[in-house]
């Protein structure tokens, strides 16, 4: 995967952390859950990128 995709996924994860923190600060359970979900999605995308990179190298 391209370097741009890796940055994009990292940014998505950071945004999820921000959402979670905002939910924590405002005691908004829905926002906290959305933030955690966004982080998991970004982590899955990062894992998929690593797998694709591994197969491209071999």
Summarize the structure in words:
The protein has 58 residues and is an all-alpha fold. The chain is 91% helix and 0% strand. It has helices at 3-26, 29-57. It is elongated, with a radius of gyration of 14 Å.
List the SSEs and their pairings.
Layout: H1 3-26, H2 29-57
Helix pairs in contact: 1-2
How would you spell out the order of helices and strands? HH
Structural class assignment:
mainly alpha
Rg, nearest Å: 14 Å
> Which segments are poorly predicted (pLDDT under 50) over 5 or more consecutive residues?
none
Q: Given the structure, what is the number of helices?
A: 2
Concise description?
By secondary structure, this protein is mainly alpha-helical. The chain is 91% helix and 0% strand. The longest helix has 29 residues.
Which key terms come to mind for this protein?
58 residues, 0% strand, mainly alpha
